[in-house]
Design brief:
- This protein is an alpha/beta fold.
- It contains twelve helices and 15 strands.
- Strands 14-13-12-11-7-10-9-8-15 form a nine-stranded mixed beta sheet. Strands 3-2-1-4-5-6 form a six-stranded parallel beta sheet, with helices on both faces.
- It is globular.
Protein backbone atom coordinates (compact mmCIF):
# COMPACT_ATOMS: atom_id res chain seq x y z
CA UNK A 1 0.00 0.00 0.00
CA UNK A 2 1.30 3.42 -0.91
CA UNK A 3 1.77 5.73 2.05
CA UNK A 4 1.97 9.51 2.39
CA UNK A 5 5.33 10.68 3.68
CA UNK A 6 4.63 13.06 6.57
CA UNK A 7 6.86 15.63 8.21
CA UNK A 8 5.87 17.17 11.53
CA UNK A 9 6.81 20.78 12.31
CA UNK A 10 6.63 21.44 16.05
CA UNK A 11 6.98 18.52 18.44
CA UNK A 12 6.16 19.93 21.84
CA UNK A 13 3.50 18.25 23.94
CA UNK A 14 0.74 18.30 21.32
CA UNK A 15 3.15 17.61 18.49
CA UNK A 16 4.32 14.45 20.26
CA UNK A 17 0.69 13.37 20.73
CA UNK A 18 -0.12 13.92 17.06
CA UNK A 19 3.04 12.01 16.08
CA UNK A 20 1.75 8.96 17.96
CA UNK A 21 -1.61 9.33 16.21
CA UNK A 22 0.12 9.58 12.82
CA UNK A 23 2.19 6.47 13.51
CA UNK A 24 -1.05 4.53 14.05
CA UNK A 25 -2.42 5.52 10.62
CA UNK A 26 -1.95 2.76 8.05
CA UNK A 27 -1.58 5.09 5.08
CA UNK A 28 0.91 7.53 6.61
CA UNK A 29 4.61 7.28 7.35
CA UNK A 30 6.51 9.80 9.47
CA UNK A 31 9.67 10.55 7.51
CA UNK A 32 11.01 13.73 9.16
CA UNK A 33 10.75 15.78 12.34
CA UNK A 34 11.28 19.53 12.67
CA UNK A 35 11.51 21.84 15.67
CA UNK A 36 13.48 25.04 16.25
CA UNK A 37 14.68 23.52 19.55
CA UNK A 38 17.47 21.21 18.43
CA UNK A 39 17.38 18.97 21.47
CA UNK A 40 13.62 18.45 21.15
CA UNK A 41 13.80 17.71 17.42
CA UNK A 42 16.67 15.26 17.93
CA UNK A 43 14.88 13.46 20.74
CA UNK A 44 11.63 12.92 18.82
CA UNK A 45 13.39 12.12 15.55
CA UNK A 46 15.32 9.37 17.36
CA UNK A 47 12.04 7.84 18.58
CA UNK A 48 10.79 7.48 14.99
CA UNK A 49 14.18 6.79 13.40
CA UNK A 50 13.96 9.72 10.99
CA UNK A 51 16.06 12.81 10.23
CA UNK A 52 15.69 15.95 12.37
CA UNK A 53 15.47 19.47 10.97
CA UNK A 54 15.68 22.75 12.88
CA UNK A 55 13.86 25.05 10.49
CA UNK A 56 10.96 24.28 8.21
CA UNK A 57 12.63 25.72 5.10
CA UNK A 58 15.32 23.01 5.23
CA UNK A 59 12.70 20.34 5.75
CA UNK A 60 10.63 21.52 2.80
CA UNK A 61 13.70 21.46 0.51
CA UNK A 62 14.73 17.96 1.63
CA UNK A 63 12.48 15.97 -0.69
CA UNK A 64 11.67 13.63 2.21
CA UNK A 65 8.01 14.51 2.65
CA UNK A 66 4.76 14.78 0.70
CA UNK A 67 2.79 16.53 3.45
CA UNK A 68 3.38 18.48 6.63
CA UNK A 69 1.56 18.49 9.95
CA UNK A 70 1.93 21.91 11.61
CA UNK A 71 1.89 21.90 15.43
CA UNK A 72 3.72 25.16 16.12
CA UNK A 73 2.55 28.12 18.24
CA UNK A 74 -0.54 29.66 16.65
CA UNK A 75 0.95 32.64 14.82
CA UNK A 76 3.44 30.42 12.99
CA UNK A 77 0.70 28.32 11.36
CA UNK A 78 0.22 30.91 8.62
CA UNK A 79 3.83 31.33 7.52
CA UNK A 80 4.64 27.62 7.68
CA UNK A 81 1.52 26.67 5.71
CA UNK A 82 2.11 29.28 3.01
CA UNK A 83 5.73 28.12 2.63
CA UNK A 84 4.57 24.50 2.45
CA UNK A 85 2.09 25.18 -0.33
CA UNK A 86 4.76 27.11 -2.21
CA UNK A 87 7.02 24.05 -1.88
CA UNK A 88 4.33 21.81 -3.37
CA UNK A 89 3.36 20.10 -0.12
CA UNK A 90 -0.01 19.12 1.31
CA UNK A 91 -0.82 20.68 4.69
CA UNK A 92 -2.70 19.67 7.80
CA UNK A 93 -2.62 22.17 10.66
CA UNK A 94 -3.39 21.75 14.31
CA UNK A 95 -6.22 23.92 15.60
CA UNK A 96 -6.81 26.81 15.38
CA UNK A 97 -6.06 27.19 11.70
CA UNK A 98 -4.68 30.68 12.43
CA UNK A 99 -4.91 33.44 15.03
CA UNK A 100 -7.26 35.66 13.04
CA UNK A 101 -9.41 35.59 9.94
CA UNK A 102 -7.10 37.67 7.75
CA UNK A 103 -4.21 35.26 8.36
CA UNK A 104 -6.48 32.29 7.68
CA UNK A 105 -7.51 33.88 4.39
CA UNK A 106 -3.83 34.24 3.41
CA UNK A 107 -3.42 30.50 4.01
CA UNK A 108 -6.53 29.71 1.98
CA UNK A 109 -5.33 31.90 -0.90
CA UNK A 110 -2.00 30.04 -0.95
CA UNK A 111 -3.78 26.68 -0.81
CA UNK A 112 -6.20 27.49 -3.64
CA UNK A 113 -3.38 28.33 -6.00
CA UNK A 114 -1.35 25.24 -5.03
CA UNK A 115 -3.64 22.39 -6.02
CA UNK A 116 -2.74 20.59 -2.78
CA UNK A 117 -4.86 19.33 0.13
CA UNK A 118 -5.45 21.49 3.21
CA UNK A 119 -6.87 19.97 6.38
CA UNK A 120 -7.21 20.93 10.05
CA UNK A 121 -7.11 18.74 13.16
CA UNK A 122 -10.65 18.86 14.53
CA UNK A 123 -10.82 15.35 15.93
CA UNK A 124 -13.94 15.90 18.06
CA UNK A 125 -15.90 15.37 14.84
CA UNK A 126 -14.92 11.70 15.04
CA UNK A 127 -16.81 11.17 18.31
CA UNK A 128 -19.83 8.85 17.83
CA UNK A 129 -21.82 11.03 20.25
CA UNK A 130 -21.12 14.17 18.23
CA UNK A 131 -21.89 12.41 14.96
CA UNK A 132 -25.17 11.09 16.35
CA UNK A 133 -26.07 14.59 17.58
CA UNK A 134 -25.52 16.02 14.11
CA UNK A 135 -27.51 13.22 12.49
CA UNK A 136 -30.45 13.96 14.78
CA UNK A 137 -30.29 17.66 13.90
CA UNK A 138 -30.32 16.82 10.20
CA UNK A 139 -33.06 14.17 10.44
CA UNK A 140 -35.87 16.67 11.03
CA UNK A 141 -36.93 14.76 14.16
CA UNK A 142 -36.47 17.86 16.32
CA UNK A 143 -38.55 20.18 14.20
CA UNK A 144 -37.61 23.84 14.15
CA UNK A 145 -34.69 24.77 16.41
CA UNK A 146 -35.54 27.67 18.69
CA UNK A 147 -32.67 28.15 21.13
CA UNK A 148 -29.13 26.80 21.63
CA UNK A 149 -27.23 26.95 24.91
CA UNK A 150 -23.69 25.61 25.34
CA UNK A 151 -21.84 25.78 28.64
CA UNK A 152 -18.27 24.51 28.31
CA UNK A 153 -16.25 25.17 31.46
CA UNK A 154 -14.19 21.98 31.82
CA UNK A 155 -10.99 23.94 31.23
CA UNK A 156 -9.67 24.63 34.76
CA UNK A 157 -6.18 26.11 34.37
CA UNK A 158 -3.83 27.25 37.12
CA UNK A 159 -1.48 30.22 37.18
CA UNK A 160 1.37 27.71 36.96
CA UNK A 161 -0.03 26.48 33.64
CA UNK A 162 -0.06 30.00 32.22
CA UNK A 163 3.42 30.68 33.61
CA UNK A 164 4.85 27.52 32.00
CA UNK A 165 5.76 29.46 28.86
CA UNK A 166 6.17 33.22 28.51
CA UNK A 167 4.32 33.09 25.18
CA UNK A 168 1.23 31.62 26.82
CA UNK A 169 -1.86 33.76 27.36
CA UNK A 170 -0.32 36.79 25.68
CA UNK A 171 -1.48 38.76 22.66
CA UNK A 172 1.93 38.69 21.01
CA UNK A 173 2.82 35.09 21.81
CA UNK A 174 -0.48 33.21 21.60
CA UNK A 175 -2.97 35.69 20.17
CA UNK A 176 -5.80 34.96 22.58
CA UNK A 177 -7.03 32.96 25.53
CA UNK A 178 -9.80 30.44 26.06
CA UNK A 179 -11.42 31.17 22.66
CA UNK A 180 -8.21 30.51 20.75
CA UNK A 181 -6.61 27.80 22.90
CA UNK A 182 -9.23 25.70 24.67
CA UNK A 183 -12.48 26.23 22.71
CA UNK A 184 -11.70 25.90 18.97
CA UNK A 185 -13.01 22.31 18.98
CA UNK A 186 -16.34 23.39 20.48
CA UNK A 187 -16.62 26.39 18.18
CA UNK A 188 -15.97 24.07 15.24
CA UNK A 189 -18.68 21.69 16.44
CA UNK A 190 -21.04 24.64 16.98
CA UNK A 191 -20.82 25.79 13.37
CA UNK A 192 -20.84 22.18 12.10
CA UNK A 193 -24.05 21.50 14.00
CA UNK A 194 -25.91 24.78 13.51
CA UNK A 195 -24.22 26.85 10.80
CA UNK A 196 -23.02 30.40 11.31
CA UNK A 197 -24.95 33.07 13.20
CA UNK A 198 -25.50 36.48 11.66
CA UNK A 199 -24.96 38.58 14.80
CA UNK A 200 -22.71 38.25 17.86
CA UNK A 201 -22.74 40.18 21.11
CA UNK A 202 -20.11 38.97 23.57
CA UNK A 203 -18.60 39.82 26.92
CA UNK A 204 -14.99 38.71 27.40
CA UNK A 205 -13.18 39.13 30.70
CA UNK A 206 -9.42 39.53 30.41
CA UNK A 207 -7.32 38.12 33.23
CA UNK A 208 -10.36 37.95 35.50
CA UNK A 209 -9.11 34.90 37.40
CA UNK A 210 -5.46 34.68 36.35
CA UNK A 211 -2.55 37.08 35.91
CA UNK A 212 -2.78 37.01 32.11
CA UNK A 213 -3.49 39.48 29.29
CA UNK A 214 -6.10 37.49 27.42
CA UNK A 215 -9.66 36.28 28.00
CA UNK A 216 -10.29 33.60 30.63
CA UNK A 217 -14.09 33.93 30.73
CA UNK A 218 -16.56 34.55 27.88
CA UNK A 219 -20.32 34.84 27.58
CA UNK A 220 -21.60 35.28 24.02
CA UNK A 221 -25.12 35.81 22.69
CA UNK A 222 -25.75 35.02 19.03
CA UNK A 223 -28.64 35.40 16.60
CA UNK A 224 -29.22 33.51 13.36
CA UNK A 225 -30.90 34.87 10.26
CA UNK A 226 -33.85 32.49 10.75
CA UNK A 227 -34.57 33.69 14.29
CA UNK A 228 -32.71 31.06 16.31
CA UNK A 229 -30.70 32.36 19.25
CA UNK A 230 -27.70 30.90 21.05
CA UNK A 231 -25.64 31.46 24.18
CA UNK A 232 -22.05 30.20 24.45
CA UNK A 233 -20.34 30.37 27.84
CA UNK A 234 -16.80 29.29 28.66
CA UNK A 235 -14.20 29.76 31.40
CA UNK A 236 -10.83 28.41 32.56
CA UNK A 237 -11.58 29.04 36.25
CA UNK A 238 -14.35 26.63 37.24
CA UNK A 239 -14.50 23.27 38.98
CA UNK A 240 -16.31 21.01 38.59
CA UNK A 241 -16.80 22.20 35.06
CA UNK A 242 -19.78 21.68 32.80
CA UNK A 243 -19.98 20.52 29.20
CA UNK A 244 -23.67 20.76 28.32
CA UNK A 245 -25.13 21.52 24.91
CA UNK A 246 -28.89 22.06 25.07
CA UNK A 247 -31.10 22.55 22.04
CA UNK A 248 -34.69 23.68 22.53
CA UNK A 249 -36.81 22.79 19.54
CA UNK A 250 -40.38 22.50 18.35
CA UNK A 251 -40.53 18.84 19.41
CA UNK A 252 -38.92 19.22 22.85
CA UNK A 253 -35.36 19.43 24.12
CA UNK A 254 -32.19 17.61 23.05
CA UNK A 255 -29.21 17.56 25.43
CA UNK A 256 -25.65 16.41 24.82
CA UNK A 257 -23.80 16.36 28.14
CA UNK A 258 -20.54 14.56 28.88
CA UNK A 259 -21.00 12.32 25.85
CA UNK A 260 -24.57 11.29 26.74
CA UNK A 261 -27.56 12.11 24.52
CA UNK A 262 -31.06 12.59 25.90
CA UNK A 263 -34.20 13.82 24.17
CA UNK A 264 -37.28 14.99 26.07
CA UNK A 265 -39.71 14.77 23.16
CA UNK A 266 -42.98 16.63 23.10
CA UNK A 267 -45.89 14.67 21.64
CA UNK A 268 -47.03 17.82 19.82
CA UNK A 269 -45.28 20.71 18.13
CA UNK A 270 -44.87 23.46 20.68
CA UNK A 271 -45.52 26.09 18.01
CA UNK A 272 -48.91 24.49 17.27
CA UNK A 273 -49.84 24.53 20.95
CA UNK A 274 -48.89 28.20 21.26
CA UNK A 275 -51.09 29.13 18.30
CA UNK A 276 -54.02 26.75 18.70
CA UNK A 277 -54.50 25.76 22.34
CA UNK A 278 -57.63 26.98 24.16
CA UNK A 279 -55.82 26.70 27.50
CA UNK A 280 -53.85 29.42 29.25
CA UNK A 281 -51.48 26.98 30.94
CA UNK A 282 -51.49 23.79 28.87
CA UNK A 283 -50.03 20.62 30.37
CA UNK A 284 -48.16 18.80 27.63
CA UNK A 285 -47.13 15.18 27.45
CA UNK A 286 -43.57 14.21 26.62
CA UNK A 287 -41.42 11.11 26.26
CA UNK A 288 -38.01 10.70 27.88
CA UNK A 289 -35.92 9.25 25.08
CA UNK A 290 -32.46 7.93 25.86
CA UNK A 291 -30.42 7.78 22.69
CA UNK A 292 -27.70 5.12 22.62
CA UNK A 293 -24.29 6.06 21.27
CA UNK A 294 -21.37 3.62 21.01
CA UNK A 295 -18.95 5.91 22.85
CA UNK A 296 -17.66 9.43 23.18
CA UNK A 297 -14.17 8.43 22.02
CA UNK A 298 -12.31 10.68 19.63
CA UNK A 299 -9.58 9.75 17.16
CA UNK A 300 -6.87 12.02 15.85
CA UNK A 301 -5.64 8.99 13.91
CA UNK A 302 -8.91 8.96 11.96
CA UNK A 303 -8.45 12.63 11.01
CA UNK A 304 -4.93 11.90 9.75
CA UNK A 305 -6.01 8.71 7.96
CA UNK A 306 -8.76 10.59 6.12
CA UNK A 307 -6.26 13.35 5.26
CA UNK A 308 -3.81 10.82 3.76
CA UNK A 309 -6.67 9.16 1.87
CA UNK A 310 -7.62 12.57 0.48
CA UNK A 311 -4.09 12.93 -0.88
CA UNK A 312 -3.88 9.40 -2.27
CA UNK A 313 -7.34 9.31 -3.85
CA UNK A 314 -8.19 12.98 -4.46
CA UNK A 315 -10.86 13.24 -1.77
CA UNK A 316 -11.62 15.87 0.86
CA UNK A 317 -10.05 16.00 4.35
CA UNK A 318 -12.41 15.57 7.29
CA UNK A 319 -12.24 19.36 7.86
CA UNK A 320 -10.79 21.58 5.15
CA UNK A 321 -8.84 24.73 5.85
CA UNK A 322 -11.67 26.77 4.32
CA UNK A 323 -14.26 25.28 6.68
CA UNK A 324 -11.91 25.72 9.64
CA UNK A 325 -12.15 29.47 9.05
CA UNK A 326 -15.70 29.35 10.46
CA UNK A 327 -14.76 28.48 14.03
CA UNK A 328 -11.98 31.06 13.94
CA UNK A 329 -14.40 33.68 12.70
CA UNK A 330 -16.79 32.88 15.57
CA UNK A 331 -14.06 33.32 18.16
CA UNK A 332 -12.76 36.49 16.50
CA UNK A 333 -16.28 37.91 16.40
CA UNK A 334 -16.79 37.27 20.12
CA UNK A 335 -13.51 38.99 20.95
CA UNK A 336 -14.17 41.93 18.63
CA UNK A 337 -17.65 42.46 20.04
CA UNK A 338 -16.20 42.65 23.54
CA UNK A 339 -13.33 44.95 22.57
CA UNK A 340 -15.64 47.36 20.73
CA UNK A 341 -18.48 46.91 23.25
CA UNK A 342 -21.03 46.45 20.49
CA UNK A 343 -22.78 43.84 18.38
CA UNK A 344 -20.81 42.63 15.37
CA UNK A 345 -22.11 40.97 12.23
CA UNK A 346 -20.93 37.89 10.39
CA UNK A 347 -19.23 37.75 7.91
CA UNK A 348 -16.66 39.44 10.13
CA UNK A 349 -14.61 42.37 8.84
CA UNK A 350 -11.21 40.66 8.89
CA UNK A 351 -9.24 43.89 8.52
CA UNK A 352 -11.07 45.53 11.42
CA UNK A 353 -10.35 42.59 13.71
CA UNK A 354 -6.69 42.44 12.66
CA UNK A 355 -6.33 46.16 13.44
CA UNK A 356 -7.81 45.74 16.93
CA UNK A 357 -5.70 42.65 17.61
CA UNK A 358 -2.49 44.41 16.56
CA UNK A 359 -3.25 47.19 19.06
CA UNK A 360 -3.23 44.55 21.78
CA UNK A 361 -0.08 42.94 20.40
CA UNK A 362 1.69 46.31 20.51
CA UNK A 363 1.18 46.54 24.26
CA UNK A 364 1.73 42.85 25.02
CA UNK A 365 4.12 41.88 27.81
CA UNK A 366 5.55 39.12 25.64
CA UNK A 367 8.28 40.70 23.51
CA UNK A 368 10.13 37.86 21.85
Amino acid sequence: MKKVRLGIVGVGGMGKNHAMSAKAANNLEITAICDIRKEVADEVAAVYGVPAFYDHHSLFKSGLIDAVLIVTPHYAHTAVAIDAFAAGLHVISDKPVAVHKADAQRMIDAWQSSGKKFGVMFQLRTSPANRKFKALLESGELGRIIRINWIITTWLRTQKYYDSGDWRASWRGEGGGVLLNQCPHQLDLFQWFFGMPSKVNAFCHFGKYHDIEVEDEVTAYMEFADGRTAVFLTSTAEFPGTNRLEVTCDRGKLVLEDGQLTFKRSEQNVSDIIRESNENFPVLSSWDVKIPVPSNDISATEVLTVFADAILHDKEPLVTGAEAMNELELGNAMLLSSLLKKEVTIPLDAAEFETELMKLVATSRYRK
